[in-house]
Design brief:
Strand content: 15-25%
CATH superfamily: Pyruvate-ferredoxin oxidoreductase, PFOR, domain III
Helix content: 40-55%
Number of domains: 1
Distance between the termini: 30 Å
Number of strands: 6
Shape: globular
CATH architecture: 3-Layer(aba) Sandwich
Radius of gyration: 16 Å
Number of helices: 8
CATH topology: Pyruvate-ferredoxin Oxidoreductase, domain 3
Order of helices and strands: EHEEEHEHHEHHHH
Length: 197
């Protein structure tokens, strides 16, 4: 089986680890070998959280610089920071809603414009899918479901060796019952965002 390497980056508290668990369970249910690893950093203080998922017959969870097939980012500047993992064939999916770091919020630093971020990503990769996943999450009924919106966008690309149905099943089994319907709606809104792009 071909190997697909996925990096997911987020700021602490955005649900990166849950998204990774959902994808891992979806792969398991579909009979796809998957290996996962996570770097938590300063997650509880708004720092970066990075997950690496390797689908297919691979011996390692390590995704070296230039090896990512797909990068999913919950925050645009984090996508830019993770560009070292990408190459000219990488597909990048990112939320366009910024979460400026503390230094930018207090005026001690600057946050790059989305146009600049998009241009830099497009210059290095094959495709950029950038949309307001936060607005879609609000539309689904919970701003915290940005992770599910981005999973929907990822599923819509057809780049992963798992079906949308297996992702839905994993959401039903892994997420809290009170959030299942909202999460499924968020997943569908993410799919629609890619279909409409």
């Amino acid at each position: 089986m071909d190997v697909t390497r996925l990096i997911i980056v987020a700021v602490g508290g955005q649900g990166n680890l849950l998204a990774s668990r959902v994808l891992g369970e979806a792969a398991r249910r579909y009979g796809v070998p998957v290996r996962m690893s996570e770097i938590h950093g300063m997650a509880q203080r708004g720092g970066v959280v990075e997950s690496a998922l390797v689908f297919g017959d691979a011996d390692s969870t390590i995704i070296s610089d230039g090896e990512a097939d797909i990068l999913v980012s919950f925050e645009p500047a984090e996508a830019l920071r993770a560009m070292n993992k990408c190459n000219a064939k990488t597909v990048v999916i990112t939320n366009t809603t910024p979460l400026p770091p503390f230094t930018a919020a207090i005026g001690k630093g600057t946050y790059p414009e989305m146009e600049t971020i998009s241009s830099l990503i497009r210059d290095k990769t094959a495709r950029l899918i950038a949309f307001d996943a936060t607005a879609a999450a609000r539309q689904a009924g919970n701003v915290l479901s940005v992770n599910m919106v981005l999973l929907g966008a990822l599923a819509a690309t057809g780049l992963l060796p798992v079906t949308a149905g297996s992702v839905e099943t994993a959401i039903r089994e892994i997420t809290r019952q009170a959030f299942v319907e909202t999460n499924l709606k968020a997943l569908e809104l993410g799919r629609q965002a890619v279909a409409d792009a």
